[in-house]
Amino acid sequence: MVKRYLELRKKRWFRWSADLAIILLIIFVAGLWQTQGHLKGAAPDFALKTLGGSTVSLESLKGKPVLLAFWAPWCGVCKMESGNFSWVRRLVGDRAHVLSVASSFDQVTEVQAYVANNGVDYPVLLDSDQLAQQFKVNAFPTVYFLDSSGQVKRSAVGYTTTLGLLLRVLLP
Which of 59, 94, 142, 163 supports an S-S bond with 137, CB 3.0-4.6 Å? Predict the structure, then answer.
């Protein structure tokens, strides 16, 4: 068996496949480690104001899956990921809610500037850091994926691709 492995290891396609599998395993394990302290089970009830002045509550989101992205105006990775949320919102249409929670800011003008500079076209909820604490957010960006009944199904920390966001929000 070892001899067969060594023969396969000489082939380029096998080396590339094995290396890719190892890299994917490392990324998967790192993701599990980063989210080990995250909220599980029922999402905390909330009602937050949007930049436009309306109120969004957890209750009003029930019936569809929810992508809830926590970010801060000073976060560079959040800026890079912002376009991914826009794409996901367009791709899922009315099959899911895609919204974000601005946290860790001093003035609403910081959030408004972020929205204007990054072409944000998804709802932005304003958090006094209380909801971020309830969701156990300790780094930005952090994304939670809720099912249609408000249960936390999964979470992610750091940059997430459009495909990664899309799969997580639509998969049961």
Answer: 142
**pTM score, whole prediction:** 0.82
Where do the structural domains in the chain lie, given as residue ranges? 2-34, 41-170
Encode pLDDT of 31-86 as tens digits.
555 667 776 899 999 999 999 999 999 999 999 999 999 999 999 999 999 999 99
Mention the CATH class of domain 41-170.
Answer: alpha beta
Single-letter amino acid code for the residue at 13? W
The CA distance from 96 to 143, in Å, is: 14
What gap in Å lies between CA 123 and CA 61, rounded to an integer? 12
Separation between Cα atoms, residue 78 and residue 69, nearest integer Å: 9
